[in-house]
Each structure stands twice: as structure tokens, then as C-alpha cells.
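Fig. S4 source data, part A: sequence.
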Amino acid sequence: MSARATPQLETPEQRLSLPVKPNGYSIGISPGFRLNYRRSARTSGTWSILVADGKGSYSMRRIAIADDIEPADGVHIMDYQQAKAATLATARAERKERG
């Protein structure tokens, strides 16, 4: 996969075919907000939200375990669509707080 290719994160099979990377794989969801997937070699990966700080860096907030091995419950274990929705909801809430 080239550095500019969008990672395929939609299904457990796609995610488990990705090589393990220290920083994981991320996709833009909303300006300043990215959904990050970090794969583990031995267990399910994790979903996190990357939030831009406006200075070229991001802070990371873990939101759930990925449904790589166990089925999603929508709270502790999320599928791609649930993690994407949680990232978008976070972006909307933070923008509302900022005014």
C-alpha cells in the first residue's frame, strides 16, 4: 500500500490483512478529526479518534475495541460504521462546544 492509499478498514478481514504498524491506520472523517485503527498481532485492534490541535499535531482518544474477533456490541466493541459514527458525533459535539 502506498503512503497515500486509503486503508481498507470496513471489515475485520480487511483490517486483519493489514500489517501491524506502530501508529496504525487513519482516515479523515471530518475536518480536524480522524478515525484511527491500530492493529495488534495477537488480539483485536482498537479504534481511536485523532483530534487536530491546530498546530500540526493530534491528540488520540481510544473509543473501543474493533470487532476483529468478537462481534460488535456498539459500546465496548465497535464495527467500522459504529466507530465512524462515534468519531463524527465527537466532532459535532466539540464544534458545538467551541461555538
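Fig. S4 source data, part B ends here. The chain has a mean pLDDT of 92.
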